[in-house]
Amino acid sequence: MPEPIELKLEHRMDLPDQEDLLDRMAQGVISTPMDRPEGPLKVSGTASYADEDHPPGTAYGWFVRANIAKGWVTGLNTKELQAMPGVLAVIRDDRMIRNPAQGGDAKSPHQGPAEIFYKGQPIALVVAETFEQARDAGLAARADYKDSSHKAVILPAQAKYEEPRSKQFSQGNLDRAMKKAAFSVDVEYDTPSMSHAAMEPHAAVAWWEDGRLTLRGSYQMLNSNAQELADALGVNVRKVRILSRYVGGGFGSKLGIGHEGVGAAIAAQKLGRPVAIALHRRQVFEATHRRSETRQRVRLCCDADGHLTGIGHEAWVSNLPGEDFSEPVTQATSFTWAGENREIGHYIGRLNLTGAGSMRAPGEAVGVPVTDAAMDELAEAAGIDPVEFRLRNIPETDPSTGKPFSSNRLADCIRIGAERFGWSERPRVPGSRREGEWLIGFGMSAIIRVNMLGDSTARVTLRPDGTALVETDMTDIGTGSYSVLTQIAAEMLGLPPERVTTVLGDSDLPPSIGSGGSRGAASSGSSVMLAARALRGKLAERMGCDEEELTLKDGTVIAGNRQRELTEVLAGDSLQGTGTIRKGKAEDGHRQSSWGAEFCEVAVSSITGEVHVRRLSGVFAAGRILNAKTARSQCMGGMIFGIGQALHEEVFHDARDGSFMNRDLAEYHIPVNLDVPQMDIELLMDDRDPFANPMQAKGIGELALCGTAGAIVNAIANATGHRFRSFPVTLDKVL
Ligand code: MOS
């Protein structure tokens, strides 16, 4: 094969996109509900996940974990463990037992006592010939501690709270607005500690060849994960390759390199053979991130016409001492609703409890349901229909900054959703509709999730045979990356999708932002689009026309009245385009968000207190929809997540030491088929956001979750006449 002809296109998003290039394309594959190209591999069990297909000679690791909440490990019965059958090594090394979110820094292998921050923290790794032998020895481990405390200090009153300055916001005088208001509410809600509960447990298999590490794991952001791993190991990032071809769910729990990744890498180096570590489900619960519990106070007030005059939102969350992250509960509160007086407070309590990190839609996932439930309470107090009340309070511009919205389709989503759902049939008087033992109620919520862009690069190669190869280190965590990136390249290059192969999940490929923060598809997609655009430029040159005059369709190249086969134009050459999208100033001047509205009907048993979600319907606007099927699936997944948040999901911590009392999928309840109704989902296919990126697409991965639980508790209030302000609304609370 001859050397490819290399082309490059880099674009910084400084100005809004005026071209709407994808709309000019002729292939007609973008936005269609195309099936996942990797779907057959997944349903036939041949897609290989992190803990499958171990290389020959693989040894197995099992983490020994602390059973105190705070203190120091001074010793371990290492000799005893080393004598157990099959045991190859007992490794104590600070680099793998630190909480990965604290970031690794290269230290020499740990010699002295190691500090414990939470119960369940890994303190050593036992490696053996088989998984069973490693587990057997791991469970026989006994550690010595000093200065140990079993106190996790989980009672909010006892915690020490920090007030990060950047997260406090004040505008006008809320206290005065509350006093003067015709109607007001001042309410407290709480949401529990939660677990991501991804189907695929965290797992990694590592091997070293010629001083270079290959790690097959389950991660979301390979470019930064490779850097984190290199930092933890104290090696140059070029010595590290991470493969995550398929990821069985992440939801944020796989955003950073985990104990299993660092542990497998260190053990494989030490033993000179591949080492695999798969976390047990309990270890996933206790030793990977959770979502912080929250306590939230919401104050809302309005005039006699139902126009908001003030909004207060204060949130108390927790994390380990020294952690930067804290659940950004109030993220959407500054811009969603009108009101000139605004008070936002954010407080972090420091607890010796499994670290809190990003979980699907950090912030809005727990903040929007609460502010929206409070909006419902105020609508009721003011005697205004909840739909009408919300429509009256959609601001013209971001009320906290005065900046315009890049696009705001919230009102459309609410109106269309109300119509589709049959909102006019809502019981006017709470607790008034009954079917036998069942109390029936309707509720709705606005759906909000901020939109972001991340620097991303992709390579697209047009091969002499007229097929294309798309390559980037982007991951597909079940979201549809393989589908949308294939479609974007196919659309831009005028190829049927079968002629495009997309390769992802390899940190050796051009770096993308990865999967996180609902920005993966828009960011990596834009880089693929730019790479393909560079190729179009070359094809236009060969046709002797401008790129704008070029039409590519079904493997033919058309310029004016001339039409040639793509393979002819390529004339035996490979064209390789590299596209890079960078964040720029376009987002500075505008508030960017994806929008939606959800509507819900519940039936609440007056005998058992159980809540059935009978209908759940959502309308969403997220700019250009790249694949109608995978986008819809994302929304469906978000709404199901929201059902769990409203009715089922809750980690119970032992108040003495922070222990997880429920730490598997039998006791940490997530919605099952019977909990989930047929869902009605509408996407506003005509939506575009020119400020977002060259595709004019926005994030949809986390969007649908951001409010669902509000719609459900609002429906429960309509059914029962009672407000439940503690999530999840389990039957013991209802009775
Ligand atoms: Mo998401 S919590 O950014 O995976």
Automatic annotation (TrEMBL):
Gene3D superfamilies reported in the protein's UniProt record: Aldehyde oxidase/xanthine dehydrogenase, a/b hammerhead, Aldehyde oxidase/xanthine dehydrogenase, molybdopterin binding domain
SMART domains: Ald_Xan_dh_C (SM01008)
Pfam families, sorted: Ald_Xan_dh_C, MoCoBD_1, MoCoBD_2
InterPro entries xref list: Ald_Oxase/Xan_DH_a/b, Ald_Oxase/Xan_DH_a/b_sf, Ald_Oxase/xanthine_DH-like, AldOxase/xan_DH_MoCoBD1, AldOxase/xan_DH_MoCoBD2, AldOxase/xan_DH_Mopterin-bd_sf
Sequence ranges assigned to domain Aldehyde oxidase/xanthine dehydrogenase a/b hammerhead in this UniProt record: 44-149
Protein name in the entry: Xanthine dehydrogenase family protein molybdopterin-binding subunit
Lineage start: Bacteria, Pseudomonadati, Pseudomonadota, Alphaproteobacteria, Rhodobacterales
